[in-house]
Amino acid sequence: MNETTLYQHGTLALLVPGLLTGTLTMKELLAHGDTGIGTGEGLDGELIILDGKPYQVNSRGEVNVVPDDFTLPFANSHFAAYRPLMTVENATQEELHDQVLGLTHDANTFFSILVKGTFTDVKTRAVAKSGRPFKSLAETAKQQSVFDRQEVEGTLLGYYSPQLFNGAAVGGYHDHFLSADHGFGGHLLGFGTVTGEVQVQTFSTLEQHLPVDDAAYRDHDFSQDDIAGAINQAE
């Protein structure tokens, strides 16, 4: 069990033109980590994996545990070995992100943050599963639902990627959220403040796994796609 490796299946760039086929099973993803985030085939909801259990927030706001044969076009996972970093009190999302970078000096590497506490004005989203033929990320993301809570206890699970890797991942932070009662969550669009404990885990290795058995992926010409623009708009 390697705790210094971040495993990533697919790239965010492949979602941009609509390469949304599930090319990895949840069982295969969990072989590489007990913690992670991702999305299902056709952008089927938002996933957050905690303690080896994969929770999916669907477009109706329901939180489900998905089976081993659930497939994903894009996902991250790693084996959790977080270290305490700091306690925050009424910190905004920007303050949280800036303080983590200020204390870790990890702007040029990959790391994960895990924040457990009480969050205010939380806004999340999940996208409705689309069918074939898949449309672009921008078109598919229009079918998203947005959820909010004024105050909620829960866990923020995020990954930070250096700007150099924007396209392979989200340059900067990519955060998902799950409430403590497992009744609310999704891709984290933003929050007002958080009071709680912040932990981090730094990775020395990125293991990038590509869907080489998917003919549509192998044949696609990414030079025609506005990858950075589409990712910025979607995230």
UniProtKB/TrEMBL annotation:
GO terms for molecular function: acetolactate decarboxylase activity. InterPro entries: Acetolactate_a_deCO2ase (IPR005128). The keyword Membrane does not apply. The keyword DNA repair does not apply. Keywords: Acetoin biosynthesis, Decarboxylase, Lyase. It holds the Pfam family AAL_decarboxy. It is an enzyme of class 4 (lyase). Pathway: Polyol metabolism; (R,R)-butane-2,3-diol biosynthesis; (R,R)-butane-2,3-diol from pyruvate: step 2/3. It catalyses: (2S)-2-acetolactate + H(+) = (R)-acetoin + CO2. Its EC number is 4.1.1.5. This is Alpha-acetolactate decarboxylase. It comes from Levilactobacillus tujiorum.
